[in-house]
Amino acid sequence: MKKNITLLSLCVLFLASCSLLDTEPQDFVTPSNYYNNETEMNTALNGVYATLANTTLYGNNLLGRMGLSADIGYESYSSDYGSVGDYDVSPADSKILTFWRDLYDGIGRANMLIKYIDKPQLDETTRNNIYGQALFLRAYYHFLLVVRFHNIPLILSVPEDGNRESVQTPQSSTRDVYLQIIKDMEEAAPLVRTAAELQSPGRVSQSTVYGMLARVALYMAGYPVKEPGMYAKAKEYAQKVIDTGSHAMNASYEQVFINYIQDKYDVGESLFEVEFWGTNEGTYTTTAGMVGRNNGIGCSSTNIIGDTGKSVVDLYGYSIGAIRTTPYFFTLFETGDLRRDWTIAPFTYNTTTGAKTEQTSNIWIRYCGKFRREYELSQPRSTNYTPINFPLLRYSDILLIWAEGVAADPDNHSADDLKQAYEYVNQVRRRGFGKDINTPDASVDLETGDKSYLLEAIKDERPRELGFELLRKDDIVRWGEFYDRMRYARSLAAAIPDSYTSSYYVNARRTYNSVNRRDEIWPIPTYELGVNRALVQNPGW
């Protein structure tokens, strides 16, 4: 059972729960009368964390419903037609608006906690730990925003009041936002506990901070900021995680995700995850999520199987199966790579018999398979909610970031670094093929070549390792390859015969035919433009 899940909706009611741009304050406990002791400070901190689990973010919408799988997966869910989910985007899109508003809500909560950090009597270690976590989360929420929208307002303090004029905040440049994110995270890193002390990837540790700093630096090195000097910083931050000695890849790729499904911490592999618990029944009604329910293997049949008294849903767990894969992603995996049939489910459920029907030739029908509800321990399984945690940062990603920090850095000419970069990529590959991680194996290891060869290999390895973990669109955008890769997916969808009219074929065509160059970023929400007159709409929107 997770130790950190609380009644988060209750503990944050008093906080700055309004949008950045709401004009009427919604507090009903005066903040100046709160933040008096360690309990109240930790309750407020729980409220900052609670943003991650919102239904507008990792609690629902982000899980396969906002187009972040890009060319490796498409949404096939009728409720989201005409939305960001199938790239029919508009500035009035409700999921984009609530993404924006709830992240700024989380930033507001963090700012309120930071404002009162010195108010209570606390020992300095405790105070610093609370402050460091709030500072990191504020930076992380800005990071999620800058990646999706580029130029955004930087909100680093609590508005003096709720008047309209107090929230007329112009956008900062993308580069300036990244610099502030790095500043906040670097300040936070030494203040929080180590992963070894914490033993909980649901909370922010030093490994969380340095690992996310490595990702931030990697993104800043690419499009649109294009500061190649940041590749060296990405490597530097990743090295700090490696040097802790607290992390190692789980020997089994499947077990990584079974652990998330079964509510088990794996501190070696998982550096940061969004925690969920229960099924929102009984006393705990706000702690569950929809991991697996949204992005699992489609399962909705209530047909009773034989004389078992159980339905197909009872056996495997309900899932809308919002994400299906593309032939491109399927063929990206090499023969013998065990990650393929775990990431891309090789079967569907027979709605009558409950049998697993192998899908050997029709790739478009295959679902995301990483979050398989059949492994859930809780019974009976809920139709609407799951206790499955969602990964935000894994150790294998740290190794790939380190390697890319070498391969993409035009100023790094170290033969030793290049050799180590190949080794880190090969460690990830060995695990993927079921081999011993630390033993060289010519059957799966990359042949050592130059940096350009390694970089292209990393571009293939990242989706194999991290597919359907909401990183694919970010990667191809920062590489400057978004539109070309989406056009290739469009060509695959266009090759589907017109006579194939099953909904998933229609959805694949619609998704990839809808993509434009402007879709590499989202539009600033129309509502926010109306309230904050200092905002300027993104190009193309």
Automatic annotation (TrEMBL):
It comes from the Bacteria. SUPFAM superfamilies: TPR-like. One of its GO terms (cellular component) is cell outer membrane. Residues 31-218 form the SusD-like N-terminal domain. It is found in: Cell outer membrane. Residues 350-541 form the RagB/SusD domain. Keywords: Cell outer membrane, Membrane, Signal. InterPro entries: SusD-like_N (IPR033985), SusD_RagB_dom (IPR012944), TPR-like_helical_dom_sf (IPR011990). Pfam families: SusD-like_3 (PF14322), SusD_RagB (PF07980). Residues 1-22 form the signal peptide. Belongs to the SusD family. This is Starch-binding associating with outer membrane.
